[in-house]
Structure formats: structure tokens, C-alpha cells
């Protein structure tokens, strides 16, 4: 199997967590309790190399791996390619990683953004399996067969019984009970908060257009309230922090809240070092709020050197 076998040994997602089967439990019960869907039993079967039908009891004491999503907080300089190589086992899986995070492969992730990391399900190909049937079974759509072909470097070669392929799963929402079990196993810590930052960032992205509309329409009090609420979500990406503070700056300037405007400008420029105080794009009041007293000192010419004191100066000093 060569490269395919090596790919199958790639990490299946650090957020997966163990479950020890209790007396009387079935895979269907575990799937419903963990994911809220009995149909997820097939994922448990594949993840644990089991051959069990729906509702078939399994042996107490058996240790199962429960698939779950991983999460990663992006740092400056990271790209979809180097993240895919480190988190999914190959740089050319970057398109899947980007699409899994509701963006396009040519739009790189931003500093501070929290992304989901698909779970690499190792699936043993059966006698009648095709990429179409596997894509439909685990990804919900037959037209995602191309993704499996590229993800596993198959180059459109036909599947053979006994082959192992990786299926990148992203639809793995945990129930409250599932999250509690994952937390007790330490999986939520390993997955960097189980997506709390990602959820906050998605909420902010959804509200940023309304924040901009508040400012454009002169609803400055509403804009200030909304912006501070968004910042209160915490764990935002740097570009989001910069955008919110930029809108806050304009609202505070309009409200003549000079001190708050200066603070918002400092936070904006700290989050976005490339921010420019362009007097063509920004009003004089905004530029003034963003220009500290130290900056003004640098812009003013130094006072003339008075030279050595004259006798008259010395006498007046006495």
C-alpha cells in the first residue's frame, strides 16, 4: 500500500477520546448519547474496526475511540498548507482544511483565528465499496468523492478490498453528555477549548456588518454598545479585534469621547500594525485622536537653541 499505508498512520485527530463500554451498552446507545444521532454508530464501527450491526451488544470493558473534532488557534505566518501538513498529514490536504472552515484555499487563515481540524477516519474498503458510496456514507454527498480521491492521493485508481483510506470528518457535534465525557478524558483541553473561540469568532463575523452599518448610519451609541459586546466574547482573531476597534474609534470621535477614541485607536493600531493614518481616508478628528502627544512632539520643529546665557540673563537670574 506504500504511501496510502503511511497516510493511514497519520494522526486521526487529537480530540478523539476513549470510552470504556459498560454492561448492556450498544454502539447505537453510545452514538445517540455522544452525538445525539443513532446513525453515527457507523462512524464508531469504522473508527474502531468493528463489524457490528445496529443495536448489537458489545462486550463490557471494551475500550472504544470516540471520534471528535480537533481545534487549532492560528499564529502569524501559518498557512493552510503548513497547517494541513502538520495536522492532517499532507500539505496538499490544505483545500479540505480550508473548506472545512467555511473559506477558500486561497484565503489564508488569520492570526488568532481558531479553526476546526477534521478527524481522519481510517476506513477499510469493503468488497462493494466505491468512492461514491463511501463519500455518501460518511460525508453525506456522493459528489465529494473527488475529495476522497485527492485526500488519499489515489489519482483515480480503483479501490481494492482491504485498502485503508482516510475520510476527513467534520460533522461530529458532541451532545452535552458527549462534551462532559470528552472533558473528563482531557480531550477538550487538547482541542483548545472544544471550539469556544471558534464559536465566538463566528458570532463576531456575523455581527460585523451590522456594526459597520450602525457607524455609517450615525447610530453611534448602538455601535459602541455592539462593539463592546463583541469584544466581550473574547478569543477573537487579530483582524476582528482591529476591525471592531476601528469602528469604535469612529463612533467615539463622533461622540466627542476623546479619551475613549484615543484608547480605541491605540488598540486598533496594536492589533493591525499595518494600519495607516491616511488623512485622505480619515477625518482630521480621527487623525488627531490617533496622534499621541509624543507623535506631535516629533512633528513639531525643535525650539531654537538659546545659546549660552548672557551677563544680563545671569544678572536677572540673581
TrEMBL record:
InterPro entries cross-referenced by the UniProt entry: LysM, LysM_dom_sf
Amino acid composition bias (Pro residues), ranges on this chain: 300-311
Domain spans labelled LysM: 19-67
Gene3D superfamilies in the record: LysM domain
Spans annotated as Disordered: 296-318
Pfam families assigned to the protein according to its UniProt record, in alphabetical order: LysM
Protein name: LysM domain-containing protein
